[in-house]
Amino acid sequence: MRIAQRLNNLEPYLFAEIDRKIAEKKAQGLRVIDFGIGDPDMPTPKHIVDALCEASKDPRNHRYPSYQGLPAFLEAVSSWFEKRFGVQLDPQKEIVSVIGSKDGISHFPLAFVNPGDTVLVTEPGYPVYRTSTIFAGGHPYLLPLKEERGYLPDLKSVPADVLNNATILFINYPNNPTTAVASLTFFEEAVYFARKHELIIAHDNAYSEITYDGYVAPSIMEVPGAKQVCVEFHSLSKTYNMTGWRLGFAVGGSEIIDAFKTLKTNIDSGVFNAIQYAGIAALTGPQDYVTAMCDIYKKRRDLLVECLEKIGWQVKKPQATIYVWVKVPKEFDSSTFTEYLLEESAIVVAPGSAYGPSGEGYVRFSLTIPEEDLLLGIDNLRKSFLQ
Ligand SMILES: *Cc1c(COP(=O)(O)O)cnc(C)c1O
Asked: How confident is the model at residue 140 (pLDDT cuts 50, 70, 90)?
C-alpha cells in the first residue's frame, strides 16, 4: 500500500500535541474548559427540527435529491438573499445547494484550477482553502492578513508572475480566525482586482449573520458586476446552529455556478430533501432566533474580553464571528502560550499558527461554550493571572 502524495503535502496536525496534553489533564481528574473548538453549543431552533421530522416521513424525500437543490430551497435562498442583501439571484442558474459550505469550498478548485495553477489563499484562515488547492494540483500562494492592515490582504503586493498564473482568490469576511470584517469598499477593490487579473474570488461568508453592536455584514454580490467573477459560499451551520446537518449554498453568476454544478454532479448526489425542507424553514421562518443567539454570544464576548483586558492581554473586541482573537504576550509564541494556558488555567485555546504562518503570535478563543463553562474558564484565568 502507498498513500497518495497529496496527503503528504498537508501540514502536520497542530492540535495533536495539545490533544494529548488535554487527555493527560482529564486523566488527572482536572476539568478542562475548551475554548478551542468553533462549534455552536446551542440547539437548532425547534421549528427547523420539526420541519425535518415532518419532511423525513414523506417517502418522496427518501429518493435521490436533485443535484442542484430542491426548487423550493433555491427559491427560499433567493428570497432570503434579496431581503438580506438586496441582490436578486436566479434560483435555477445562480444558486446551488452544498453539503455544508466545507463541501463547496473543498471541491470548488477542482472546477477552476488546472495542475500548476496558483491560488491566492489568505491566511491565517480556514485550512480548507489551502488543502483544496493542493488536492486540485494547484499551488497555494499565501497572502498574509496583518493586524496593521485590519486583516485585509494587500492585493497590490502579489507579484505579477504569480498573478499571471492565478485562478482563484479565497477571502473570508467576517473572518475566522481574526474576527476582522470587510467593508463594501474592500469588496469593490477585490472585484476590480479579479476583473483586471481574470481570476475568480471565492468569498466564504459563513459568519454573515453572527454580528454584534449593530454591525451588518455585506455580501460581495452587492458589488455591481460581482456575479461574473465571484462565488460566495453561505452556510446554515453558524446562523441556525446547524453544524451537524450539513447544509449551505453557493451563489454566483451562471457561468461559474454552471461549471461548479457539472463538477458536483460527478462527486455527490445533493442534500437530503428533508434537510433542505428544514433549511427552507430556517431561511423563511422567524429570524429572531438568530438575534437572540447573537445576544448570547455578545454577552459571552463581553465577559471574556473584559477579563482578558484586565489581565493586560491585547484583545480585538469582535464585531462578528464566534471568536475572540488575542495577541500572545511577548515571551510566548502561539503554541507555547496555548500550552501555558492549559497548564496554568486548565483552558484550551486554538493556537493562531494552526491557521497559517501569519497567525503566529495569536490565539483564538471560541465563544461556543455554555455560560457555566465560560464563567469557570474566566474564573480560572482570574485566579492564575489577577491574584
Ligand atoms: C464553520 C466554517 C465554515 C463551514 O461550515 P459548514 O459547516 O461546512 O457549512 C466555513 N468557513 C469558515 C471560515 C468556517 O469557520
From this structure: very high
Q: Are 18 and 347 in contact (CB under 8 A)?
A: no
Q: How many CB atoms lie within 10 A of CB 135?
A: 19
To test the pocket of ligand 1, the residue of 39, 123, 235, 246 to mutate (highest count of ligand atoms within 8 Å of its CB) is 235
Distance 306 CA to ligand 1 centre (A): 27
Question: pLDDT of 343-387, one tens digit each?
Answer: 999 999 999 999 999 999 999 999 999 999 999 999 999 999 987
Measured by CA distance, the residue closest to atom 14 of ligand 1 is 206
The predicted structure's pLDDT at residue 12: 67
Q: Is the CB of 176 under 6 A from ligand 1?
A: yes
How many angstroms separate the CA atoms of 377 and 84, rounded? Answer: 36
* Torsions phi, psi for 202 (to 5 deg): -105, 105
Domains along the sequence of the chain with CATH: 5-43+288-385 (3.90.1150.10), 46-284 (3.40.640.10)
310 CA to centre of ligand 1 in angstroms: 31
- For residue 277, the surrounding DSSP H or E stretch is helix 273-284
pTM over 0.85: yes
Nearest atom, ligand 1, residue 247 CA? 9
- For 341, half-sphere exposure in the C-beta direction (CA atoms, 13 angstrom radius) is 32
